[in-house]
Structures are given as C-alpha cells and as structure tokens.
Design a protein that fits this description.
The complex is a heterotrimer.
Chain A (H helix, E strand, L loop, with lengths): L1 H6 L16 H31 L3 H6 L4 H34 L5 H13 L2 H12 L7 H6 L8 H27 L2 H8 L4 H12 L1 H17 L2 H7 L9 H10 L3 H34 L1
Chain B lengths: L1 H6 L11 H28 L3 H8 L2 H34 L5 H7 L2 H4 L2 H12 L4 H8 L8 H26 L2 H9 L4 H30 L2 H7 L9 H10 L3 H32 L1
Helix pairs in contact in B: 2-14, 3-14, 4-9, 4-11, 7-9, 7-12, 9-11, 9-12, 10-11, 11-14, 13-14
Chain C lengths: L2 E10 L2 E11 L4 E5 L6 H9 L11 E4 L2 E2 L10 E4 L11 H10 L9 H14 L15 H14 L4 E5 L7 H18 L2 E6 L2 H7 L2 E6 L2 E6 L1 H6 L4 H6 L4 E4 L12 E4 L4 E5 L9 E9 L4 E8 L5 E7 H7 L6 E6 L2 E5 L2 E5 L6
The chains are: A mainly alpha, B mainly alpha, C alpha+beta.
Chain lengths: 291, 280, 353
C-alpha cells in the first residue's frame, strides 16, 4: 500500500496560490495546529533517536560500533540488501516494461498481485516462508533436510522475507514514470534501426533514471529496516542471524538503551537521506516540467 | 525471394521487443515469491479441519487481540483522516517558513524502520519521557497501554492520508471556488458544499490505506504496547507468540483471518480509488 | 521508391480502424492522407512504417518498390518516421538525436565518428538549424523540434518519409512557414513522402495527391484539384471546403428522391430580386453579411423551405448589389451536385421550385 503514497506523489509544481482563501486568523490557527501535530508526531521521535543516542556522550555512542555483534548485524543487513535490492531491481524493470509498454489481458490483475506485499502484515510475510521452508513444518521440509539446506533461521530465509516485503517498491516507482513517457521515443528508436537492448539502455533508461534511482534507494532503506518479517524467519541468533533492526531490539530489551539508539541513528540517517533524495528528485522534475 | 522466405513466419504481433522476456520474468517472480507463499497460509489452514481452525481463531486471547488491533487501528486511522486533512490543506494552500521541511517529513513514517520508530516513541511517551511526563501527570498512561498502541498506529498511518489528499487538493479547480464565491457563497459554504465533497473519495481512500497498514503493523507497536495479554496484545504479536511456541497451525489460522481482512480492505481501496479517479 | 498497400484491415479490439484499404503511391510523390479523426489515416501510416501490423487473417500486404515488407521490423524498412509530437530523445542533444540512427548501425555499416559529425552538420544545414548541435529538445521552439525530428528521420537515408500530423502541434504562423518549407524541401530531395493531416487546406496546398479517408476506408484519391472539383461522394464534398446542402425536390430525376444537393458557396450567384427569373433560381432572404476579406460571405435563407445557405461574393459585386440585411434576392447556382449510388450527377437543372 506504500505504493499509493508514491503513485500519487505529485510531480506537478504547485499551482499559483489562490486569491480566495480563509481569513488570516483562521489560516494562522490551522497552520499552527498542523505544524504542532507534525512536530509532535514526526519531528519529536526523530529528535528522540539522536538525543537518546548521544545522551551519555559521543564516546559511548561510538562504543556501540566496536561491539562485534553490532558489526555482524551491520554486515548481515548489508548482505541482505545486496541480495534483495538487485533482484527487485531486475524484477521492477521487467515488470514496468511489460506493464507500461504493452497492452494485454489481465494487466490490472497483475498490478493487483504486484501490490499484494503492501497489504500483508510483515509478520505474515515471514510466516509464509516458514510454512514452506521450515525443516519441521514446511512444505519442503523433506528435500531441505535431504540436501542439508538452511533457509529458515538463516540468510536465505531473511533474504526471501525481505524480497517479499520490498518487492513492489522499484516497480511502483517506475510504472508511473514510464507510463507518463509513453512509447513514442522507443518506437522512434526502432524506426531508426535500433534493437531492443539499445532502445532500452539508450532511450528508456536515461529517461527514467531518477525514478529508478529513488526506487532503488527506497527499496534499500526498507530492506535494511525490515523488522517484523525478518524477526519471524531469522530466529534472531546474535552474531549470526541478527540484522540491525533485530539487534536494536535485542539491545533495547537488554536495557542497553544508548547502544540501541546509537545503532538506530544509522537507520534514521538512511531514512532521512531517502526523504532528501525524494524531495531533490521532485524538485528536479518540477523544474524540468516548467521548461 | 529471399525476403519472402524470411517473412513466412509472422513475427510477434507486438512492435516493441521484450514482451515475452519481461512478462516471463514478472509472472515467474510474482508466482514464486508472492502467490505460492501466500497461498500456503490458506492451504495449510484449510488442511487443519474446521473445528481446529475455529478453535484457533476464536481463542480468548486471539479475540481480545482482534478487538485491540481493529478498534485502535480504526481510531488511529480516523485521527489521521482528520489531522491528515488539516495537514494536507495547510501544506498545499498556505505558505509559511519551514513548510518544505515539514512536507518532506510527512514521509518519515514510511522510510523510518518500524523498530526505530517503536523505541523512539517508547522513549518519548514513557513515564519519564519528554512527552510521557506531561501525560502521566494528567493521569494518562501513554506507554505500555492501549494509548501507546494508538500513538504508534497514528504515527505510521499519517503519510497515507496526507499523500492521498495532497494531489487532489492541488488539482482542485480554483475557478470553481471563485465562481461559488462570486455567486455569493460564504467561505464556510464553499468549504462544506464544494471542497469537502470533492475531497471525500480521496479522504476515504487515505483512511482505508492508513487502516489497512495499521492492522498489520508490528515493529512500531510492540515496544510501546507492553504486550499485556488480553489488553495490549495486537494480532500480529499473537501470531508471533504462536510461532515461538511452535503452535504453527494456530499461527497459520490467525494469519488466514488477517490476510482475508487485508485482501478485503485492498478490494475496498481499489473501489475507492476507482471512485476517486472518476470524481476527478 | 513506390509504395503499395493492398487489402489492409486493422482492428483494435472491437474497433475497426481500417477496412480492406488499398493504396498505391508512385515514386517521389508527396501524398497526403486526409480525413477526420478516427478515419484510420494515422493507423494506415503506422502500418506503412511497421509501427502496427495489419490484421493477420486478412490478405493485407505492404510492398516497397515491389518488395514485400509486411513482416519486416520498422528499423529494416528504410522508412523515416516523424511522430506527431516528434518523440525526440529528451535527454540527448540535437546532435545525438540526429546521429542516433547512424550510431545504432551495425559496426560494418556504421560511419566513422568524423563522417557522422559531417552528416549531422549537413542535415542541420538542410533543415536550417546550423549551430544548434548542443541544444536539448527542451531548449527548442516547436518548429525547431519539428525540423530536428525531420533531420533525425532523414539521417539514416530512408527510402520513404512518413509524417504523422507534422504541423498539428504548431501555431498558425509557424505552420504556414513550415508547410512551404517542407514543400520545397521535398521537391529538392525527391523522396517519396506521405503525411497525415486532418486539415483540408494543408492537404490541398501541399500534396501532389490527396487520399481522402473516412470511416476506415479510402473515399477518393486524386490531385487536389480533382478531389475538390470532382468529389466522388457526399463525404468528400462536405469535408473539402465549404458547401451548401439542399433537399432535392421530388419533381425531378426519379433517382433523386430524398437525395441531397450540394452547391459550393462560390457557385452561388446573387441577383436582385425579380431579376431574370429562371428555373434554377430561388428566392432568398439575406440574413447576414460577413464582409471581411476579399470575398464577402452572405448568409441566406431560402424562402419557402427555410433552408440556410451561404454565398461567396466578390466585394465589388456586393457593392453593386447594395445588399443589406433583410433584403430579398434571387440566388442562382452555377454547379449543383447530386450523389447517387453509382456516382454523381452534375446538373444545373436539379433544383425543385
């Protein structure tokens, strides 16, 4: 469902301000309420993360990152992102190409299936892979045991759950952009003798690069931050199957509050960078639309 | 003659290349990673027999969790519908210093990992937290209570309402408002008779999206909720607890209920969006 | 190079865009596909380019110079296609846009970088855009983009040039200039050219040959003068230029019952009331006079039937007549056309009293 947020994201510069509006006192009151609400609900938690992390000084903050378990968690998180983001990128490009460049029956059904991961609770996203790959309860328990594979409570399970959760992001960023571009440029390339790959790499890709870039960054941020789905499949073994969000939970439960928040600052900065990038791209798009 | 030979086989009826390849990748990927895994929930729960299924999904603890999850999600989504409307209105219609930053910040719950949000909200609203101090002095327990769940679910649902409403508000035709005003309608009348009806579909869509997100939420809730059985346990947590106790059938049965609810909501959201599109 | 299309049909779902259309375009001609929107003209052009395939069950074939290209990919047909909205590659400079086709050639055929630069500069000169090599499409005016699109299409030395509504997105002044420019340009390079338009003035002024299309079919093919002076169907006469319609009287021509008579406004002559009453003269009332321009247009109402019609009268004639609103006059017709199943009858004796 996150899709809707990005799908309806406006690329249009705001229209000129209306001449007819509310009276000044009403305007000020409404603005004050909105600013207050946003500060309370959005700004405060963000400030709290950094405050709690640095409460006992920079030394203690930095100490978190010499904790070997924390380093393992960071490494695992990076590994999971390095597996799931490229796969979802490939899928996103293929899905966006198929959906925006062709007409075929069942397209809207396909798009609905694409949106399903947004509608599923993260916990269930983890559960479904347990139901298939668990060595005690899974559908594939026998072959997994026979081949001595480790999927649940191991990296593959974590990666699968993460792929599921972040699957729609890149496709969902690309589809509206590619839809808006139409097919004429690709057809023009074809009449000029270019083949499919050349058309894709030289015409389509440069046109959607910003949307694609944002999709990848967002997908990455979500992949690194996923908690519920990963919690279910990972078993949360410190130093082995504990990702950053899981290790934050562990630290927090062990009353190592400063360490928990210190690790959280990294993910928060990643989130902030994602927001910054989104706004930068929107600003760019609005600027080029004015051309 | 040579071309004759080459053209005997009619090429793919699609002009742009790559349909087979991209469609193949898309369908295979979605089938393997989404459809088959999700179907596991339904197939496994249908295999457990109706009685066992019914017992699993109507346990006391489970039913209490439904009430908590759906009830508080509804309240949080309703709060977001109201405040999200206000926020979207202020962000699209008024200009004030810091507007752009606040606008950018609306997406925070969307980008911030839920576990981080969970511990941050808990730190803020605990008895000794910045905001908790204030609420506790008023006798409101904001942490480890249903209020805490409400706070977390409001946090994660906010962007859905704001981001659904914003583009529609931007596209509202100023001329219609001006025409109404020129016909002598007061601002209040213009608002209730022209603006609200035009925004209603988008607002309901935003509400439904926030609600759908809230019922599945896990990470941001479990820290602040305290997870007291029958009182502050959300359904996703109940599923996790079943799993931790190796009660797989029970976990699967409850998951089937939740999935059905989510899919029903997805269907409603699709209808709402179609309505909203038709309206605009 | 000549183009031949035979028995082309095309359906999109339930919608019939082309129905058994055949067309031959001789080498070096400038041909216009003219018709209202939905007539199938753009679909036909796209089928010629290979951007659509004709319905496979039909016998539809496209031949270039006698060679069957029906199933050939667009890039292999040797067509230059100019899209209605130009479809310039927005992230490439003018230079890169124009050289795209050359750079996409297989290594064995690809010209050297130097050669490509020379070709680009030559093309820019040809379309009168020298020095704009490094501009991006967003930095060009509509007319300039048009010509970049043309240069890009010409860079690969196509055998045929196809243009979809080439002037549709331009404002009136630029449109006229470009139209003239394209005419001389085509005469210079002598390439078989087909363009689509819904603007009859554009088609008549620019083309050697006009193909009038309606409702998924070709109505008539001919030189501009032919289609204007000898329209083969009511559609053609109504679509090309202004025309007045009258119900055919029942006292004449047995086949004319319930038919419609067509008279061009410039074939209507106005006489003072009562002057030389003769058979195909009708009495009419002057409703309004639009006197801007060389010819005045006089709106008239036929007395008795209340049919409205229009006459085009030279200014001096108007002055001679001293016409004013409300006057009663006698209108006579130089040409009247009546369409029947198998053609049309041109007669001046068709009008019922």
């Amino acid at each position: 469902m996150a899709a809707i947020v990005s799908r309806t994201r406006s690329f249009v510069p705001p229209k000129s301000f209306r001449t007819i509006t509310e009276s000044a006192p009403v305007r000020w009151t409404l603005t004050a309420i909105a600013v207050g609400f946003l500060s309370l609900f959005l700004l405060m938690p963000l400030i709290a993360v950094f405050y709690e992390a640095f409460k006992k000084g920079v030394q203690l903050y930095l100490a978190t990152f010499s904790d070997p378990y924390a380093i393992d968690a960071i490494r695992l998180t990076l590994t999971v992102a390095a597996i799931s983001v490229p796969l979802n990128l490939l899928f996103g490009l293929a899905a966006a190409w198929a959906i925006t460049k062709f007409t075929f029956r069942g397209k809207s059904l396909l798009v609905t299936v694409l949106d399903l991961p947004f509608a599923v609770s993260p916990v269930i996203a983890g559960l479904i892979f347990v139901l298939i790959f668990s060595t005690t309860h899974g559908w594939l328990a026998e072959p997994i045991k026979a081949w001595d594979l480790r999927i649940i409570f191991a990296l593959p399970g974590i990666a699968l759950a993460t792929i599921f959760i972040t699957l729609p992001f890149i496709a969902r960023e690309l589809i509206p952009v590619m839809q808006a571009q139409g097919r004429d440029e690709e057809l023009a390339a074809l009449t000029l003798g270019a083949g499919g790959w050349r058309t894709f790499f030289h015409v389509t890709l440069p046109n959607v690069k910003w949307g694609l870039f944002y999709g990848v960054i967002l997908c990455n941020a979500r992949a690194m931050g996923e908690f519920g789905a990963v919690a279910v499949v990972s078993g949360n073994i410190k130093g082995k199957t504990s990702t950053m969000p899981l290790y934050i939970e562990t630290l927090y439960m062990e009353y190592q509050t400063v360490s928990a928040f210190s690790l959280a600052t990294i993910l928060s900065l990643l989130a902030l960078a994602t927001l910054l990038l989104k706004n930068f791209i929107e600003w760019r798009t609005a600027k080029s639309a004015r051309h | 003659m040579e071309t004759r030979k080459k053209t005997k086989r009619r090429p793919s009826r699609r002009i742009l290349p790559g349909f087979g390849l991209t469609m193949g990748i898309t369908v295979t990927y979605l089938t393997l990673l989404v459809l088959i895994p999700l179907s596991a929930v339904f197939i496994r729960s249908s295999g457990m027999g109706w009685d066992a299924f019914w017992t699993a999904i109507t346990g006391r603890q489970v039913v209490a969790s439904y009430k908590v999850t759906f009830g508080i999600s509804f309240l949080a989504a309703a709060t977001n519908a109201v405040f999200g409307f206000l926020v979207a209105w202020v962000l699209t219609r008024y200009r004030f210093p810091g507007r752009r930053i606040l606008d950018a910040l609306v997406d925070l719950p969307f980008a911030l990992p839920t576990a981080v949000a969970g511990i941050a909200l808990t730190a803020l609203y605990a008895r000794n937290g910045w905001l908790g101090q204030f609420f506790y002095s008023l006798g409101i327990e904001t942490a480890y209570s249903q209020v805490g769940i409400y706070i977390a679910l409001t946090f994660i649902g906010l962007p859905f309402v704001v981001r659904t409403l914003q583009p529609v508000m931007e596209d509202l035709d100023a001329e219609v408002e001006e025409a109404a005003a020129s016909l002598g309608a007061g601002r209040a009348k213009v608002f209730t008779q022209i603006i609200v009806p035009a925004l209603l579909p988008a607002m309901l869509t935003g509400f439904a999206l926030a609600f759908a997100r809230a019922i599945g939420e896990y990470g941001s809730v479990i820290f602040i909720s305290g997870n007291i059985p029958l009182r502050t346990e959300i359904t996703p947590l109940v599923i996790v607890k079943f799993l931790e106790n190796y009660q797989y059938p029970q976990a699967t049965a409850v998951a089937a209920v939740m999935l059905t609810a989510s899919f029903a909501l997805l269907f409603v959201i699709n209808l709402l969006q179609r309505w909203a599109e038709k309206n605009s | 190079m000549s183009i031949q299309a035979t028995h082309i049909s095309k359906t999109f779902g339930d919608y019939r865009a082309l129905e058994n259309v055949s067309l031959t375009v001789p080498d070096g001609r400038l041909v216009s596909l003219l018709g209202p929107s939905g007539s199938g003209k753009t679909t036909l052009l796209r089928i010629l380019a290979g951007l659509e395939y004709p319905d496979p069950d039909a016998l539809g074939r496209v031949l270039f110079h006698g060679e069957d290209v029906t199933d050939l990919a667009p890039g292999k047909r040797g067509v230059g296609f100019v899209f209605q909205h130009y479809a310039l590659f927005r992230h490439m400079t003018v230079e890169k846009n124009i050289s795209f086709g050359l750079r996409a050639m297989p290594l064995s055929k690809r010209p050297s970088t130097d050669e490509i630069r020379k070709r680009v500069n030559h093309l820019l000169e040809l379309v009168q855009l020298n020095g704009l090599n490094k501009r991006y499409p967003s930095e060009l005016s509509g007319g300039q983009r048009q010509r970049v699109a043309l240069a890009r299409a010409l860079a690969v030395e196509p055998r045929v040039l196809l243009l979809d509504e080439p002037f549709g997105a331009l404002d009136a002044k630029v449109r006229k200039d470009l139209r003239r420019w394209l005419r001389t340009f085509q005469e210079e390079i002598q390439i078989t050219t087909i363009f689509v338009t819904h603007d009859q003035e554009e088609a008549l002024e620019l083309a050697d040959e006009v193909v009038v299309m309606n409702n998924a079919r070709i109505e008539q093919v001919g030189s501009p003068q032919e289609v204007y002076d000898k329209p083969k169907s009511p559609f053609v006469i109504e679509f090309l230029g202004n025309v007045n319609r009258f119900r055919a009287g029942d006292s004449h021509h047995s086949t004319a019952e319930a038919g419609v008579l067509y008279v061009r406004p410039h074939d209507v002559e106005i006489q003072p009331s009562g002057a030389t009453p003769h058979q195909q003269a009708i009495p009419a009332k002057v409703l309004h006079i639009f006197s801007a321009g060389n010819f005045a247009r006089v709106a008239l109402e036929r007395i008795g039937t209340h049919e409205h019609f229009e006459a085009e009268v030279p200014r001096e004639r108007l002055r001679e007549l001293a016409l004013e609103q409300g006057h009663t006059v006698t209108a006579t017709f130089r040409h009247i056309r009546l369409f029947e199943k198998n053609g049309f009858i041109e007669d001046t004796n068709l009008l019922a009293p």
